[in-house]
């Protein structure tokens, strides 16, 4: 029988769900950095665009700014990457569409849990990585918005989420344990497994650093895994709020 729990330095992450996740305590600077990055990304929108709407607290700020722009006359269609983002976009009156109607997305704006100088990302802290990756991969341009705490070389300092079908979770846990990846099934505040918008489980790999994201991504491909939170070669730019401004990282 696999041990399901060990010391969890990311305990806050494993408890709440995306839908009811309280914002972890964040310094005013961090909140301001997120706001600056979100506002800068929204400047890139233009009439007629199909826009991927990311998930998480930074994306929510961008969605709010998009909602205000739409009220002011901006003519776009949004494709949300989670149920939570869809609810927020609807509340704000942002017209929505689907990948069935628009399989090519002009621009997606989404947050990240970590990024490195190569613009490899760890995503899925909110459990929305599957839809996020589908939308990012369908996008002509993918802009990531973060505060300064998300920049990490090597990539790491945050668990790598993996979305797994419930039927296959035990063999997947066994494989990841054999690879010394310290897998833990994500739990909600109520102590039951977190269920994604696609009705799967999230297994968080509690590893300190990901010096070779491509190698780890290859190791994660095994039956039962639907997708993982390593976004490699997808981001075109990261807009990182830092201090009172925005630092722009571009893919080389
Ligand atoms: O990948 C994500 C959700 O699945 C989020 O983009 C990521 O967790 C960043 O969230 P926040 O902006 O709240 O820090």
From TrEMBL:
One of its GO terms (biological process) is D-ribose metabolic process. The active site is at 132 (proton acceptor). CDD domains: RPI_A. It catalyses: aldehydo-D-ribose 5-phosphate = D-ribulose 5-phosphate. Substrate binds at residues 55-58, 110-113, 123-126, 150. Keywords: Isomerase. GO terms for molecular function: ribose-5-phosphate isomerase activity. GO terms for cellular component: cytosol. InterPro entries: NagB/RpiA_transferase-like (IPR037171), Ribose5P_isomerase_typA_subgr (IPR020672), Ribose5P_isomerase_type_A (IPR004788). Pathway: Carbohydrate degradation; pentose phosphate pathway; D-ribose 5-phosphate from D-ribulose 5-phosphate (non-oxidative stage): step 1/1. It holds the Pfam family Rib_5-P_isom_A. The keyword Isomerase applies. NCBIfam families: PRK00702.1, rpiA. Catalyzes the reversible conversion of ribose-5-phosphate to ribulose 5-phosphate. Belongs to the ribose 5-phosphate isomerase family. Homodimer. This is Ribose-5-phosphate isomerase A. The gene is rpiA.
């Amino acid at each position: 029988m696999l041990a399901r729990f060990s010391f969890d330095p990311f305990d806050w992450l494993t408890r709440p769900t995306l839908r009811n996740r309280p914002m972890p305590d964040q310094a005013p600077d961090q909140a301001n950095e997120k706001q600056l990055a979100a506002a800068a990304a929204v400047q890139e929108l233009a009439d007629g665009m199909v826009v991927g709407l990311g998930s998480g607290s930074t994306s929510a700020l961008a969605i709010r700014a998009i909602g205000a722009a739409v009220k002011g006359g901006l003519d776009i269609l949004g494709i949300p990457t989670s149920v939570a983002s869809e609810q927020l976009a609807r509340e704000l009156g942002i017209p929505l569409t689907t990948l069935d109607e628009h399989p090519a997305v002009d621009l997606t704006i989404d947050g990240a849990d970590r990024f490195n100088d190569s613009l490899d990302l760890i995503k899925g802290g909110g459990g929305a990585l599957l839809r996020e990756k589908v939308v990012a991969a369908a996008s002509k341009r993918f802009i990531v918005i973060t505060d300064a705490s998300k920049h990490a070389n090597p990539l790491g300092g945050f668990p790598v989420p993996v979305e797994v079908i419930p039927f296959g979770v035990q063999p997947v846990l066994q494989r990841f344990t054999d690879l010394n990846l310290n897998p833990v099934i994500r739990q909600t505040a109520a102590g039951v497994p977190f269920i994604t918008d696609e009705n799967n489980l999230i297994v968080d790999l509690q590893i300190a650093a990901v010096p070779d994201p491509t190698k780890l991504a290859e190791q994660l491909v095994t039956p039962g895994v639907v997708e993982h939170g390593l976004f490699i070669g997808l981001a075109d730019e990261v807009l990182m709020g830092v201090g009172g401004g925005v630092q722009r990282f571009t893919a080389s």
